[in-house]
UniProtKB/TrEMBL annotation:
Lipoyl-binding domain sequence ranges: 1154-1234
Ranges where the Biotin carboxylation domain occurs: 7-461
Keywords: ATP-binding, Biotin, Hydrolase, Ligase, Nucleotide-binding
Lineage: Eukaryota, Fungi, Dikarya, Ascomycota, Pezizomycotina
Name of protein: Urea carboxylase
Cofactor(s), names only, from the UniProt record: biotin
InterPro entries with a match to the protein in the record: ATP-grasp, BC-like_N, Biotin_BS, Biotin_carboxylase_complex, Biotin_carboxylation_dom, Biotin_COase_C, Biotin_lipoyl, CPAse_ATP-bd
GO MF annotation terms: ATP binding; hydrolase activity; ligase activity; metal ion binding
Length: 1253
């Protein structure tokens, strides 16, 4: 009959990780409510989302879980009946158990008396002697090093020094001679004091050829039963790695089971033990003698394999014992407890502990982001874990990720099942010991049962197969091709900036040309190969060495296990190269169809970032055999493309026509040699050059600046204008925004764009669509012939010809006049050779046009053309296409036919969903964001220091509250989803909510996730922290979940929004918002979603009535005046700001001249690269030291450390020539010093000087 809990209704789980999850599941199975506790670093752990209630602890990290007073307060507030501690943390803390009992609750575990006795190992040893249980020859507590030395000599070496309060492998030191004792005694004593608040130390004889056997017991305070033995001999650094039930040694010596279990039961009876406990023994493998080690008064990590073999739920049994105690009984009735006693195990079980660690580095922990987690399921498989995809493993705790357990009829079958299970586990992100565990279990010694405690140290040899990152280089990422070319929804394409070099590198090693490579920027990494491998490096010239010996690029090369590959700095033209390794990087996960890293958005590649020191990248298990068979090979020089890049081909459009730019602007665009800015990166290549005149004075409903427009889908390679500055969109660029793109780099020349280096110059050369296809065909032919050449199928070395015949085409491909009724004018704009931007009407907000766009998209989707992606906006749609499948001419014809066939009617209804979001109107993070912008970018503007106050003035409103009401009193239609990671653009369906706003100029570097902003006449919701230019209005929840594990998301749809969703907002306080946001982050929040209908006629009628509404007409008039007034203010302040910048620059030049004139023999430290001065690490009067960092530059999202040169050591700093925030070019002075030689010095650029910015 199933037991019904009658006294314990709610349990607090005072732990974290997999044991907390295990206890919560047990509570749920018993019908008991659970309360979990967590720290900020654990907020996404499964134990937080799984519990009925979860509470954020007041302390941080480990200290948070150890704060008993905080735990007791949580128990009081949440009306908790009992506390279960699991193992570790407070599980064997006597004071904690006592305080819980004093507070009227039950401590789910043994009595405080048992904990106290067993917590002191010397007392536990004495009780064993009293119970006639054999003990390891040893000593009482020792007071001094001399006493320890004397006792060790008497016992005979080797011995083990043990902390009396130790546990979990801590506080143990094996000593083989007198010298080691002298060194170890103070260490053990200190560790005992710091970890266990006890300074007692004693000695036991150390048995090298021994086994660690433990017996699981359970008592009710009167009787004790056992559930057999476990063997835990496979240990590293005295910590268990693999456990078995039953012990293979005991199974082959059956008489031992009775002896061991009797000793364990007798020992526990002496304590009148209650709840679960484990009695541990040391067993001499040579003689079969066994000795008591200690008793653990808690649940053991490895309890699960006992449960599998004995059919018992130990945690449920602990809860049942506690329920009886809560009912003032001694414990579980003895009749029931004794009925659980079994003669022996059923079958065999094995547990493997999966850690985030690097066995190759002596099991160093490897915290980080788990990008993919999948556990196998099946009969006889049990996984106890706390992690899921997207979990960040913090560095503050034990790195245990999971316990993988298997059960089968016998040990041989269990071992086979374990190997299969480990092989099918997926844990991608930080390094784990999965491969190591498989190697141990498949080893000959383990298979034979030779599982001694010293097995791993003396009889097992691990052969890792990976790359150990010794130095990451300036900016090294994993990239594959073509990456996420058709994801849409603001997911950047990603992939290599130079896809020719990456593909050739792969071909040289025998990979698929699109396989993942390491993309190296400016300066490369130093990599230690733990196994032989075949590799190739192609791209811009950089020095390549193996153990210091120079090696050629554009070659198939071999490297031996233990050798180091080093890639130096960029030498001349170009800035990127690609390291391909045969077999790729199998443990780098696929995310949204690609392994490519998008570091700006923190996904893909190695934990969503560039390489870091100590990253550990697994190689294919076949790498050694491949390398043995490979033959090295180098390409002839004629095959290698030139990286001295002076021009890049573009197509006119979408916006270099007369609507936006003058004829003079167009002449300037294509005649200027544009300088590449220091802040160029994978998101965009920054251009420095002249400013357009513009053919209009503002952006109309799109914004105040003539470069502003309605948000639309950006083409990859677009030359984008934000205010008066320009950037060329590259592989990680946004795909939606409200800034014009004058022209677009053709697909076949994106690789040259990706090789442009800060400080270099480039011209944009217009061509035609047909010529762009010709160049694309040349590139693909070059790659195909290269494959034939390297495979030996062709003797002709391919050569890449990049020159095209003259020719240009218009930005506007076709214009269709409107009919004056419901059918608007349509312009088809060219967006390179892969995009058509379809623009409807006069680019004013018109819900009829938005609905027409929706109908057109439905028709385009119905065509089913592969590779086609639609990116709609309020006034148009950008269609991305693949010219190899459908040409621009063919697509234009099809789209025009479909658009012409759409009926000009407003009788349209569309099923939609409405999502209701909580919103806080004045969140402190928004205030902090504005403050940071004013401090670091621009201190004065018409919209500063308060965006809401600016909106009030610009729209003729009387109060801040009136501005906020705009947000609360309207439904919003999502007209587009893009920008970056599912950012929605919202159009208010209430005419009274149509306010206007400028956009930030320059844009912000960062915007808090969940920010609701407004730019032009449209609203936006920032799904995560990201750059932006909309005015900050309010804050709601983030609406992007990278790994799709939260409610409302999925791994294939990490975005929340789709075009034509509708949104409403409900106001909450800051405190309530923080509470809701905590639930969202923990995966416990469910969005309020309802089905709805979009009725075009009803909405159109409402807007038509508004045109005659006197109140709205008055509002529009005041708004018009307010916008004009604020625009005038902003223009004046912008000019003042730019003047100030120019004046500051002039003053700096004058100051620098004076410095040089006053110092006739200076020691000048110059900038090695185009960059921004981020930090100056010296002051006037400082004496320069060897190796000292003088200045930290920022370029291409990297930090560049400029070090003191040898000839400047001992010099005294006379002046700081370039202050933080200033921009420098190669040769610009950074610091002027006096003394040393008078030779000028230019900082060398090498990988040790770079790190991520």
């Amino acid at each position: 009959m199933e037991y019904k809990f009658s006294h314990i209704k709610k349990v607090l789980v005072a732990n974290r990780g997999e044991i907390a999850v295990r206890c919560i599941r047990a509570c749920a199975a018993c019908g008991i409510k659970s309360v979990s506790v967590y720290t900020g670093s654990d907020n996404t752990s499964e134990h937080v989302s799984l519990a009925d209630e979860s509470v954020l602890l007041s302390g941080k990290n480990v200290n948070g879980y150890l704060d008993i007073e905080n735990l007791l307060e949580i128990c009081r507030v949440h009306e908790v009946d009992a506390v279960i501690p699991g193992y570790g943390f407070l599980s064997e803390n006597v004071a904690t158990a006592q305080k819980i009992q004093d507070a009227g609750m039950i401590f789910v575990g043994p009595s405080t008396e048992s904990i106290l006795e067993m917590g002191q190992k010397h007392r536990a040893r004495a009780l064993a002697v009293a119970a006639n249980v054999p003990v390891v020859p040893g000593t009482e507590l020792l007071e001094s090093k001399e006493g320890a030395l004397s006792a060790a000599k008497e016992l005979g070496f080797p011995i083990m020094l043990k902390a009396t309060g130790g546990g979990g492998g801590m506080g143990l030191e094996v000593c083989h001679d007198e010298t080691e004792i002298k060194q170890a005694f103070a260490k053990v004593k200190s560790r005992d004091d710091s970890l266990f608040k006890n300074t007692g130390v004693f000695i036991e004889k150390y048995y090298a050829s021994s086994r660690h056997i433990e017996v699981q017991v359970f008592g009710n305070g009167v009787d004790v039963v056992h559930f057999g033995e476990r063997e835990c001999s496979i240990q590293r650094r005295h910590q268990k790695v693999i456990e078995e039930c039953p012990s293979p040694f005991v199974t082959s010596h059956q008489e031992l089971r009775c002896k061991l279990t009797k000793c364990a039961v007798d020992y526990a009876l002496q304590l009148k033990y209650k709840s679960a406990g484990t009695v541990e023994f040391l067993l001499d493998d040579i003689t079969g003698d066994y000795f008591f080690l200690e008793m653990n008064t808690r649940l053991q990590v490895e309890h699960g394999i006992t449960e599998l073999c004995y059919g018992v739920d130990l945690v449920a049994l602990m809860l049942r014992q506690a329920d009886h105690e809560k009912g003032s009984q001694v414990g579980i009735p003895s009749e029931y407890l004794l009925s659980l006693q079994r003669d022996g195990p059923v079958g065999a079980a094995i547990e493997a502990r999966v850690y985030a660690e690097v066995p190759f580095r002596n099991f160093a922990p490897s915290p980080g982001l788990l990008q993919a987690v999948e556990w196998p399921e099946g009969n006889g498989i049990r996984i106890d874990t706390w992690v899921k995809t997207g979990q960040r493993v913090a560095p503050y705790y034990d790195p245990l990720l999971a316990k993988v357990m298997v059960h089968d009829t016998n040990r041989d079958s269990a071992m086979a099942k374990m190997l299969t299970t480990l092989t099918t586990c997926t844990l991608q992100g930080p390094a784990t010991n999965l491969h190591y565990l498989s190697a141990v279990i498949s080893s000959d010694g383990f298979q034979k049962g030779e599982t001694l405690t010293n097995y791993l140290a003396t009889k097992f040899q691990y052969k890792p197969c990976a790359i150990d990152v010794l130095s990451p280089g300036a900016f090294t990422t994993v990239q594959d091709f073509p990456a996420r070319a058709t994801s849409g929804h603001g997911i950047p394409r990603g992939g290599p900036m130079d896809n020719i070099s990456s593909r050739v590198a792969n071909l040289l090693v025998g990979n698929d040309p699109g396989a993942e490579t390491l993309e190296v920027t400016i300066s490369g990494p130093e990599l230690l190969f733990t196994a032989p491998a075949i590799f190739s490096i192609c791209g811009a010239p950089m020095e390549v060495t193996i153990d210091g010996e120079p090696k050629p690029m554009w070659s198939r090369l071999k490297i031996k296990a233990g050798q180091k590959l080093k890639v130096g700095a960029s030498k001349s033209g170009g800035c990127r190269n690609y390291i391909a390794v045969k077999g790729g990087f199998p443990d780098v996960p696929v995310y949204l169809g690609s392994k490519a890293t998008t570091p700006s958005l923190k996904y893909g590649g190695t934990q969503g970032r560039q390489l870091q020191t100590s990253d550990y990248i697994a190689l294919s298990e076949h790498t050694a055999s491949w390398t043995e068979e490979a033959v090295e090979f180098s390409l002839p020089a004629s095959c290698i493309p030139s990286f001295e890049i002076s021009e890049v081909y573009v197509l006119h459009g979408p916006h270099d026509d007369g609507t936006f730019m003058t004829a003079k602007d167009r002449e300037m665009l294509y005649s200027t040699a544009w300088k590449i800015g220091h802040n160029s990166n994978r998101t965009g290549i920054r251009l420095i050059g002249p400013i357009p005149e513009w053919s209009r004075k503002d952006g109309g409903d799109g914004g105040a600046h003539p470069s502003n427009c309605f948000d639309y889908g950006y083409p990859l390679g677009g030359i984008n204008w934000g205010g008066d500055s320009s950037v060329v969109f590259s592989m990680d660029s946004p795909n939606l925004g409200g800034l014009i793109c004058s022209s677009t780099v053709i697909s076949a020349d994106l690789w040259r764009l990706g090789q442009l280096k800060p400080g270099e110059y480039v011209r944009f050369k217009p061509t035609t669509y047909d010529l762009s296809l010709e160049l694309a065909q040349r590139v693909e032919t070059y790659v195909a012939k290269m494959q034939e050449f390297v495979e030996g199928k062709s003797s002709g070395a391919p050569v890449l010809n990049l020159k095209l015949a003259p020719g240009e085409t218009s930005a506007i491909l076709k214009r269709v006049e409107g009919d004056g009724s419901a059918r608007p004018e349509v312009k088809y704009r060219q967006g390179g050779d892969s995009y058509i931007i379809i623009e409807f009407g006069k680019q004013m907000a018109d819900i009829t046009i938005t609905c027409r766009i929706r109908l057109l998209i439905e028709k385009l989707i119905a065509l089913g053309i592969p590779g086609m992606v639609m990116n709609p906006s309020i006034g148009g749609v950008t269609v991305q296409f693949d010219s190899k499948i459908i040409t621009q001419h063919e697509l234009l014809k099809k789209v025009d036919e479909l658009e012409s066939a759409i009926e000009a009617t407003r009788e349209v209804t569309i099923p939609v969903r409405t999502i209701r979001l909580p919103v806080v109107l004045d969140h402190p993070d928004l205030t902090e964001c504005l403050s940071r912008y004013m401090t670091t970018i621009r201190s004065t503007a018409g919209y500063l220091p308060d965006n809401v106050e600016y909106l009030r003035k610009a729209n003729g409103m009387s109060s801040r509250r009136e501005v906020f009401e705009i947000l609360l009193n309207s439904r919003f239609l999502i007209v587009s989803v893009g920008f970056l990671v599912g950012n929605p653009i919202l159009f208010p369906l209430n005419p009274k909510s149509q306010i206007m706003a400028q956009k930030f100029n320059p844009t912000r570097v960062s915007t808090p996730g969940g920010t609701v902003g407004i730019g032009g006449s449209l609203f936006s919701l920032y799904p995560v922290e990201q750059p932006g230019g909309y005015m900050l209005l309010a804050r709601t929840l983030e609406t992007w979940d990278t790994f799709g594990t939260k409610p409302g998301f999925s791994p294939s749809n990490p975005w929340l929004w789709e075009p034509f969703d509708m949104v409403t907002f409900s106001e909450v306080s800051v405190e309530k918002y923080d509470e809701i946001n905590a639930d969202f982050m923990a995966g416990k929040y469910t969005f309020d979603v309802s089905e709805d209908v979009f009725n075009l006629q009803e909405i159109y009628n409402e807007f038509e009535r508004a045109k005659k509404d006197l109140e709205i007409m008055a509002f529009r008039k005041a708004q018009k005046n307010g916008v004009a007034e604020q625009l005038t203010i902003e223009n004046e302040r912008y000019l003042g700001w730019t003047r100030t910048l120019a004046e500051n620059s002039a003053r700096e030049a004058k100051r620098l001249k004076a410095i040089l004139e006053s110092n006739p023999n200076p020691v000048n430290i110059e900038s090695p690269i185009d960059a921004n001065v981020w930090k100056v690490e010296v002051e006037v009067g400082d004496v320069l030291r060897k190796g000292q960092v003088v200045v930290i530059l920022e370029a291409m999202k990297m930090e560049i450390n400029v070090l003191v040169p040898d000839d400047a050591v001992g010099s005294v700093v006379q002046a700081i020539a370039s202050k933080p925030g200033s921009t420098v070019t190669p040769g610009n002075l950074l610091v002027v010093a006096k003394g040393g030689s008078d030779a000028r010095w230019k900082a060398s650029v090498n990988d040790k000087n770079f790190r991520e910015f």
